[in-house]
């Protein structure tokens, strides 16, 4: 089954390992017949400040934010590559989420469920998050309790209706051993061809 896939490089810097992995996934997915849209955070221009208006008078989207949301709304599968910095997203990645995932587009505060959470508006989509880090996966799991993955899965993706979400953890990304990047790329290409 072919899919409409949005591949987003969520690293704030161009020409990184994350960019390479995003391109690897996108190329493999296209080769397998999937429809693929790509974007890179490093190319986007927008005001990162959400401001002090709450949800009553939000800032209008800059063109790059509108393009991002249109690509996300058109997709049935989201693939994001991102680094983990200080246990979380880079600041510009967080700013994108603050600005783009707004009420009326990503969730609806007027229709809360039985526990008071807003109605998610991006249902019917799945996600794959590819995280690069210097923290080994066993340390992330047993010492930090997979906190970063839980934050992305539960407080971002699932909150707006994107589920299931799966994670690929690649470490140590700062100084990979000889041949490691090629092994990671091969693993990502398999996911891309399968549309997973």
Walk me through what this model shows.
It is a single chain. The protein is 37% helix and 23% strand. With 196 residues, it is of the alpha/beta class. It has one domain (4-194): Flavodoxin domain (Rossmann fold), CATH 3.40.50. Strands 2-1-3-6-7 form a 5-stranded parallel beta sheet, sandwiched between helices.
How are the SSEs ordered, and which strands pair?
Blueprint: E1 4-9, H1 17-31, E2 35-40, H2 63-74, E3 77-83, H3 91-100, E4 107-112, E5 118-120, E6 125-132, H4 137-142, H5 147-160, E7 162-170, H6 180-194
Helix pairs in contact: 1-6
Task: Provide a concise account of the structure shown.
This protein has 196 residues and is an alpha/beta fold. 37% of the residues lie in helices and 23% in strands. Helix 1 packs parallel to helix 6.
Features:
alpha/beta; Flavodoxin-like fold domain-containing protein; Rossmann fold; globular; Flavoprotein-like_sf; 37% helix; two-stranded antiparallel sheet; five-stranded parallel β-sheet; Flavodoxin_fold; NAD(P)H dehydrogenase (quinone) activity; 196 residues
What does the largest sheet look like? Answer: 5 strands, parallel
How many beta-strand segments? Answer: 7
**Principal-axes shape call:** globular
Estimate the mean pLDDT confidence: 91
Domain Flavodoxin-like fold: 4-187
Pfam families: Flavodoxin_2
Organism: Pelagimonas phthalicica
Keywords: Oxidoreductase
């Amino acid at each position: 089954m072919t899919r409409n896939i949005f591949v987003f490089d969520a690293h704030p810097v161009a020409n990184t390992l994350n960019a390479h992995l995003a391109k690897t996934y996108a190329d493999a997915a296209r080769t397998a017949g999937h429809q693929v849209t790509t974007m890179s955070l490093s190319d986007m221009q927008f005001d990162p400040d959400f401001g002090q208006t709450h949800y009553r008078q939000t800032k209008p989207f800059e063109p790059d934010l509108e393009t991002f949301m249109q690509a996300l709304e058109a997709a049935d599968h989201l693939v994001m590559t991102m680094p983990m910095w200080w246990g979380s997203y880079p600041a510009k990645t967080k700013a994108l989420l603050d600005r783009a995932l707004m009420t009326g587009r990503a969730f609806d505060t007027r229709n809360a469920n039985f526990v008071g959470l807003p109605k998610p508006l991006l249902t019917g989509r799945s996600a794959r998050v590819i995280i690069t880090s210097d923290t080994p996966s066993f340390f992330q799991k047993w010492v930090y309790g997979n906190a970063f993955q839980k934050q992305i899965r539960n407080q971002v993706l699932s909150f707006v209706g994107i589920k299931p979400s799966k994670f690929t953890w690649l470490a140590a990304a700062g100084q990979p051993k000889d041949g490691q990047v090629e092994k990671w790329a091969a693993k990502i290409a398999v996911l891309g061809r399968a549309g997973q």
